[in-house]
């Protein structure tokens, strides 16, 4: 409704139709009083506030009578002269929209948008000003800018980049990190020209992976080599997900050139030593055969035989030296599977001290006798023995060590032949435990990133869906001039926007925990707890919570802000969930058990079911969706505790039985008397 219409209603005291749920029509004055928008009536000559509705009184925080004693210059932070100039512009109808900062009764300065227009009431010329609080919009814009900056920084540090494939326009859009990685000078690239930069022997494989993702939903995760515009060839790992609604593929790029180069060098070196070892063993066996034949032929060759034996010993020692100089384990077997020789690396990898513990024994019974679960592995099913005539390669095979442990290995088997018949085999193997651990760690990190992206996208999508839904409803209600529904739509939109703002702020705060920003130094725990209780005094007094703090004679060494966030989040969490407890209480202290220092925060509130033991530390997890907050507090505590090599857990006997959170900080703990 326009301001001139409001002025007319106020002047002639007309009545409007009753609102839903009211039996009597509302007067213009009642509409003015009860309107949810903040409205001030101002004398343009003096700036005196003539009247204010209930929303304005609640927003500025002054009692109604006190607010009417003020003039607008006392509220507007622009200054008296500048404020009077803006009043004159509004009075002359030279301007209707203004952006100011208003001062509230508690001293806070808030950004506001003001729509002001003159009107006449009973012969008096006044300014009617409708005020909107713009704080949330400014904070949201600032958080968005900071989030984008953090993302660019994270890509630069991690050697990552992300991309979007628009299938409708057949073009890629790359982030700054991806452009720097690929050596591109423009973020948008057509698909055909970009794929020409992939090495030809890998191009078809990548295209097929894209098609499987879009058509069948098969996860997209490929390695390929890419030639940058400057001629540099790099190895990349690319992963992507398909959004059917937008008909787009979103993915990330990771530079794995160093890892792939190391793997190629390792493979080449291993193959060289394998071939060298096999050649040496074959030469050695040939020399032994020749010497044996010479002894039988003639005793007259005894002197020559002694010389040959000396040479043989020298060659044997050289062979042993060569075999023992390799990091790969090497052993030989005959057709029955009896070990004929082994090098030092084989003994070390398998946990034996002397060659006699393997040589002369059935190698299958020693190191290959059982499956990983302990069930028997029959020798007649052993591929190494059954296919001894063939050259074999296994990327992963489990071998048993002397102490009963198992190591994963990659092995190669080369048959030894004499006169066309296979007399045994030479086996080389590598311990791939570290490789598997690295692969598992990479898989775990990828899974963590995938879960993080899913959680963030899921929780951010919900308020966006709400906003989009109510925007459509708002458009319809505006066309129908249904003011009550319009207000309801705006309330839901504002609530969803606040929810998204909380989630983004929580994410930003959580992202900063990965590094210690403050200068680490000694912190007294008792003082840290006291300062935390002061900052939370409003919550504790509001809910009349009694706090008992034990003597905590400990010092911590670390970032005081990060350490303080542990106690603040746990105490604040305990205060939120006191429930209907008539005498709420929080106990703060420390325990020493078996040489381990454990801090605790205990409450007598609503308690926690043990089935939620892991879920409560998950990102955005809230056992009660209606509770305040964004679900970031406990994940933040867990991340800070783990940063100091500790752990956090809780104990609770169930509903209304209270709960107790425990945590350790071994890396930060210092004796009370120790100086920083």
TrEMBL record:
Residues 315-368 form the PAS domain. It catalyses: ATP + protein L-histidine = ADP + protein N-phospho-L-histidine. It is an enzyme of class 2 (transferase). Keywords: Kinase, Membrane, Phosphoprotein, Transferase, Transmembrane, Transmembrane helix. InterPro entries: HATPase_C_sf (IPR036890), HATPase_dom (IPR003594), His_kinase_dom (IPR005467), HisK_dim/P_dom (IPR003661), HisK_dim/P_sf (IPR036097), PAC (IPR001610), PAS (IPR000014), PAS-assoc_C (IPR000700). The chain crosses the membrane at residues 272-295. Its EC number is 2.7.13.3. It comes from the Bacteria. Residues 392-444 form the PAC domain. Pfam families: HATPase_c, HisKA, PAS, PAS_9. This is histidine kinase. Residues 455-669 form the Histidine kinase domain. It comes from Pelovirga terrestris. GO terms for molecular function: phosphorelay sensor kinase activity. GO terms for biological process: regulation of DNA-templated transcription.
